């Protein structure tokens, strides 16, 4: 347990409620300067260590199917395995610059209804925006890849720490899924795109927090509900807007897996949360809020602007005014909010998380289908929806 985590635990033991500064490191959730001040300076780093103390739990109760919904998910996962090397058409030609142009044309152009007068990009023509699009693709797929490695590590931890054999069985299938996702995004970046980016600092902070926490249900909440929930929405958004057929099919396969992963988290935590106190639920609400903010903050693509030789502070505030940017930022929460509602986190502890999600502008998703309701649809053969 880190010193910061001990301090937080001591505050909770004293009955103190944490404010934004204690949870996310700033008072104003939308403080753009503070968000962009969080930077990854380890561009050459090839290894990152996170210390974690937790109990590895053996169970001598081997009764399979004691939790029927988890058992059903496990059986479905076994039937749904796919091979990243052989089940996708890797011979598909991908012209990255042409793809940027096609995607822009299909989605209304490089900029819509944004006045960039007075910014460093005011003089940019098609060549600069195409190069930005190329770098943006590289960055986005790189962050997907890093997030999938985080899921790989967290799910291996769940196998060790969760106390139910049905959950261990299912989590073991997810370890295989996550390894395949890391592999497939890495292969696409290497074979079809033109470069990797290091992990975004906001994403790394979140993954570090999830992995360092000793409690198995916090691993579930951080990874299965928050990170995987946002990933499922982001993959769906990219699947909708991309014109590249290989990526479209790749994302469809991954989304099929991810929907099961989020459903796994919902099914497992529903049972566990039913026995928690209000104070314990408030702690999970705070963790969910922190995760939501960190994931939202990582999409500013500071690393791309740096590579393009542009100060992010001079251009990001202007581009955030684009209508499609607000839509994208909000739609990322379309899976998280209804799943938090199903878990009882929205209205526990006097509705604290409902208030926070209202401040973030995403509470409108609360009545959308939760992943437990919709994952059956995503289990259809991926090729049918590609």
Provide a compact summary of the structure.
By secondary structure, this protein is an all-alpha fold. It contains 18 helices and no strands.
Give descriptors for this structure.
386 residues; mainly alpha; Ribonucleotide Reductase, subunit A; 18 helices; globular; disordered N terminus
Sequence-ordered SSE layout with sheet pairings:
Blueprint: H1 3-13, H2 20-24, H3 32-36, H4 68-79, H5 96-106, H6 126-161, H7 165-191, H8 201-212, H9 216-241, H10 245-273, H11 278-297, H12 302-307, H13 312-319, H14 323-331, H15 336-342, H16 348-359, H17 371-378, H18 382-385
- Annotation, overall tally of beta strands: 0
Strand composition percent? under 5%
Largest sheet: none
The fourth-level CATH homologous superfamily is: Ribonucleotide Reductase, subunit A
- The chain-level mean pLDDT equals 89
What do you see in this structure?
The protein is 64% helix and 0% strand. It has helices at 3-13, 20-24, 32-36, 68-79, 96-106, 126-161, 165-191, 201-212, 216-241, 245-273, 278-297, 302-307, 312-319, 323-331, 336-342, 348-359, 371-378, 382-385. Helix 9 (216-241) packs antiparallel against helix 10 (245-273) and helix 11 (278-297) runs parallel beside helix 16 (348-359). The radius of gyration is 21 Å and the shape is globular. It is mainly alpha-helical and 386 residues long. The model is unreliable at 1-7 (pLDDT under 50).
